[in-house]
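Predict structure. Chain length: 233.
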Amino acid sequence: MGPGRPSPRPSEPALPSLSVLVYTRTTAYRHDSIPDGVTAFRELGAEHGFTVDATERPEVFEDGLGGYAAVVFLSTSGEVLTPRGREALRAHCAAGGGFMGVHAAACTEYDWPFYGDLLGARFARHPDLQPGTLTVEDHDHPSTRHLGAAWRLTDEWYDFTTNPRGAVRVLARADESTYEGGGMGTDHPLVWAHEHGGAQVFYTGLGHTREVYSDPAFRAHLLGGLRQVMRRG
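Prediction complete.
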């Protein structure tokens, strides 16, 4: 969020008659920024013509997800789904529904292998909250096309247990030379997209702070991820 950053595009085509489920249940660490994230998604929906339902109730999954074009796990943590809910999420993906993970979504459902494969990688650790730089590798994606070559912001800079490159389309990586305590080296994917189990999938490791959800560039990043998973990119 430094000087000289390109501004997000002022307008995007609407996403009419689409509904998004934003899931925020936590059974481990809970981020203070979750309400800010929910607000950001609701306001994006109001601006771009799609409906957002936010919930922490696992029973919503058990009732079926057929009405949702995309499911977003927004800084979920721990085990957040029942066995029936897991099957409902798997069925949603198999039917072509989209899936998007934000930040601590990588700290979720550790004992369900399908979820780890769906997301692309699992959280390992992070250094202290601090400014750093994201290097954008791929501008041909709706989540990154508004960004320059480098994006400076403050976050937790997640490390992952495995490097997902080769299994996913890496969109941006953390530049560990710009902050202290990185643990993955020069190749440190932090934002990616892929297809798994029938679903278009997008993950961003960014999103720790409350303030970032008010930032226009980050909101454009989230909106672009939604466009991809709803196949409207």
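Summary: Residues 1-10 have pLDDT under 50 and may be disordered.
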